[in-house]
Every structure is written in C-alpha cells, then in structure tokens.
Amino acid sequence: MSSDFLKEKSKESGRKKEHFLRIIHIKKKAVVTKIEKLTAEFNQSLQNNAHIHQLVQHSLTILIETNGVKKSLALTTKQKLVINQKPPNTHDVYLRGQDDEIQSILLGSKSLKKAVENKEIELKASFRHILLLDSIFLLNRRR
Fold first, then answer.
1. pTM > 0.70: yes or no
2. Rounded distance, CA 30 to CA 36, Å?
3. DSSP code of 54?
4. Which branch of life, at top level (predicted)?
5. Beta carbons within 10 angstroms of residue 119's beta carbon
C-alpha cells in the first residue's frame, strides 16, 4: 500500500471521528437544555405555590443525573430554588433516571416513591428527604 493511500484513509477516519463527536456534543447540549427547561419550569411552579416552602425547614441539595448530565438544585428556606451549574461535592439527595421519568416526578405527575418501587429511577436519600421531596413534588404539580 502506498503512503498516500494510508494518509487518505487516516484523514477519512479523522473526519468520521470529528463528525461523530459533533453529533454527541449536539445531543448532550439538547439534554442539558431539556434539564434546564425542566428545572426552570419546576422553579416557576414553586414560586406560584409559595405555601409549599413552609415544608422546607433546612436547605436541601438535590443532584439530578439524566443521560450523563448532572444538575444540582438547592431548595432553600428563603423560598428559592437555586439551580447550580456545577454540581457540589456533597448533596442530600441523588436522583438518576431517564428524562421522561425525571420530568414526571419533578412536575408531580408521578410519585417519587412509586418510581423508586418500579425501579424507574435510582434514588439515594434519607427516608425523611424522600418523604419531603415526594410531598413537595406532588403538591407542586400542575393542575
């Protein structure tokens, strides 16, 4: 084989890899946008239902992971939901699952406990935090 042929094959392989990486970047960006939209929607709903904040006695940090993208939320006692771009080292709740499952839980159309029982999501939290979040999500749902 000639060296020109090998160089051409190498260039072609490099272009395919670059194209593949570009597709992955676009898909990951779409997932991030969906998570950001979801958390913004959840936050707006929380602001409309200010009475729910009475349930929050201490700040609570939630790490949500979907499709390899992590997003950190902090429910604070000051009636705010803080959305962190960079996940913290520690968190009170870890929630992982598919976009649709996370969306249905955050928007209150599905119970957090039921989703865990059906193994639709992975949840790591104290029992107290699970009950609190399940209550917040269900009370905050769209009507």
1. no
2. 10
3. G
4. Bacteria
5. 8
